Prior knowledge:
It is built from six helices and six strands. With 207 residues, it is an alpha/beta fold. It has a six-stranded parallel β-sheet, sandwiched between helices.
Amino acid sequence: MSPRLSGKVCVITGTGGSMGRAAALAFAREGAMVVGCDLNVDSASATAQLVRQEGGTMESLQPCRLGSTAECQALVNFAVRAFGRIDVLFNNAAMAYFNWLEDISDEGWDRNRREEVDLVFYLTRAAWPHLKRSRGVVVNTAVEGSRMGGQHARQDPPGPFGPPGGGGERGVVPRLRRKLLRDGCGHRGRWRNEGLVIESRAPDAAH
Ligand SMILES: NC(=O)c1ccc[n+]([C@@H]2O[C@H](COP(=O)([O-])OP(=O)(O)OC[C@H]3O[C@@H](n4cnc5c(N)ncnc54)[C@H](O)[C@@H]3O)[C@@H](O)[C@H]2O)c1
């Protein structure tokens, strides 16, 4: 069977972390040209090295702060300069903070939004022209708990936004997906039939 991602340029965020690294290795084994990024220089560089050691193709930009629109644009430019196109955007990176609802300060809420939601929006917007051109795919990491009301978190009672103080903001990501669907291939969207595929995936305690 030929590799499923042969010739595809796949941007994966947070490749210095556990799921980002696993995704980079898995995508490269399927023939993808991987573009990674992370805040963490050492671990992101190590991932790129691991991929190349296995014979895969990967370029990586670090440090890259996805909470900055300018750095998101720089990542898109980096990917296009390296490989000429973007076929897949995997919005994997985020910080996760946990706290009880009444203990989340205004600053904490703002930080959670910036570090869990803004980075998905900024990078998707920057990559959108290339994804439209390639009729590409966006995969977002969401949080299962934000859908389930947190009942899976054994020691924590459910909070109104999902697990108490954690992952709730990420509940916005599946909603953002609907906006992308409408703009990308929705029934009323300007880009009807352009064929963009938008997915949200919610891993639950993947280690
Ligand atoms: N591991 C799980 O059980 C689980 C469950 C549900 C959801 N998730 C979500 O899946 C994603 C990946 O999880 P993980 O376990 O690999 O986490 P991780 O902490 O190991 O990796 C996340 C990586 O993203 C990077 N990152 C965070 N914010 C960034 C930013 N603004 N700019 C650039 N890089 C940034 C971090 O430096 C880190 O290397 C996260 O969004 C997490 O919330 C994980």
